[in-house]
Model the fold of this input.
Amino acid sequence: MLTAFCAAASAVYLFNDLRDREQDRRHPTKKRRPVASGALGAAPAALVSAGLAAASLGAAWSLNDRTVQLVAAYLVVNACYSLWLKRIVIVDVMVLSSGYVIRVLAGAAAVGVAVSAWLVLCTVFLALFLGFSKRRHELVLLLGEAGEQRSVLNHYSRTFLDQMMNVVTASTLLSYALYTTADETVARFGAFSLVWTVPFVLFGIFRYLYLIHQAEDPKQRNPTELLLFDPPFLINMGLYGLTVLLIVYVGGPPAQ
Done:
């Protein structure tokens, strides 16, 4: 499964870089990408992208039909995004977010487990949150030239994106909290144990918002990259992971 989506994601990114190479050459950081910089020619890039897409389907086929369908859907949705949908305001972020949901569903299909509806909703809202924050970063980074690099940015403003982020932030937190207290979750863990992870999720999202709005040099890094260098966020993630492990392996058997 990991191989299938690594290949699929690589195929998609390479195809998108191929389509956007002219705009990327005017971007302060994307201009260093292999296709935009000219280090990788257009024809080889297209061949490698097609080969990776075929390899992803082959890897998914070795698992089951449902996984093949989801990997194929991922490739088609992202191809449509690169060719057309990324130019439609709001739809662009929603389509990007759908890729994360497809990955969750494909992972579940690969191992034959059911996914909680609340967990799917949480993934949807979290992906939207990250997508809107990425658009906001692009507006801040590119200032008046944002529309030239990505035409859909002409239809966004920082105020509008902040409002969208407020909506999906609340939705993400509510969905996760409801997931931890859902009947199926309580039955699995034998208690409301998972609810103790909610404070870590709260802090993680609040810390991310802090880095976006209050960081000293918000133009220097993509907001998702900021997290990789932020000790409080990394410590929080470590504590979240440790808490989940304790709940799963020490918290007692599932309810019968």
User: Anything to note?
Assistant: The chain has a mean pLDDT of 84. The chain has two domains: 1-113, 116-256. The chain is about 75% helix and 0% strand. Residues 116-256 form one domain.
